[in-house]
Design a protein that fits this description.
The chain is α/β, with parallel strands linked by helices and 203 residues long. It has helices at residues 12-19, 54-57, 65-75, 111-125, 136-140, 145-162, 180-197; strands at 2-5, 45-52, 79-82, 86-87, 102-105, 129-133, 167-171.
Length: 203
């Protein structure tokens, strides 16, 4: 159920299309773990939860990656429903309003905070695919890479214990301008999480 994407969140459009039997490819010459296609929603509309921190939430006047992802998925012929308790962007309006604005991105949240709530959100919104980018604020607020990775492992484990059929796109963290060494350290731990929690039946 865990798909580890090296190229960042905008690459998930191609990855999702490949997983759902449309177009393939990871983009930018980077690789991802193998994906085995399986039926999703019987309605033909796929419920996707963009989950994370400020990268997912975005800010007043910004488009957010969610806008571009939604447009790419629609252009691929996919019917998607973004789900979550949040809507729009942080403290204002998005640059472009013509997309499904629901999400589970929380401004300045850490992985441990997401871990405490993900079970509730999974039960409420029942996503079939979760897009996870989390850990930046943990590093910025002084938490170590190893403990942050364990919180991320806990998030993924809770998602799968709630619904083992959920597909998870676990993204490497976008490199920041500050504290890059610990971010690199955390990114190096994420592939093991993806690999250890994937199964043959649900890769």
């Amino acid at each position: 159920a865990v798909m580890h994407i090296r190229t960042g969140l905008l690459a998930v459009a191609c990855i999702l299309a490949a997983a759902l039997g449309c177009a393939g490819g990871g983009g930018s010459g980077e690789s991802s773990t193998p994906i085995v296609s399986a039926p999703l929603s019987a309605s033909g509309t796929i419920r996707i939860m963009p989950l994370g921190d400020s990268i997912t939430s975005s800010l007043d006047g910004e488009a957010s990656y969610r806008y571009w992802l939604y447009q790419q998925l629609a252009a691929s012929g996919l019917s998607v429903d973004f789900v979550g308790s949040q809507r729009g962007v942080h403290r204002g309006e998005p640059r472009f309003p013509d997309f499904d604005q629901d999400h589970e991105g929380h401004w300045m949240w850490r992985a441990d905070e997401i871990r405490l709530r993900i079970g509730e959100w999974m039960t409420t919104y029942q996503p079939e695919i979760v897009l996870l980018h989390i850990g930046t604020n943990d590093i910025f607020q002084g938490q170590g890479a190893a403990s942050t990775a364990e919180d991320i492992r806990g998030i993924v484990s809770t998602i799968l214990s709630t619904d083992p059929d959920t597909r998870i796109v676990l993204s490497l963290l976008i490199p920041p301008d500050r504290d890059p060494a610990r971010m690199v350290e955390l990114n190096a731990l994420l592939p093991e999480i993806a690999g250890s929690l994937s199964t043959i039946e649900n890769p």
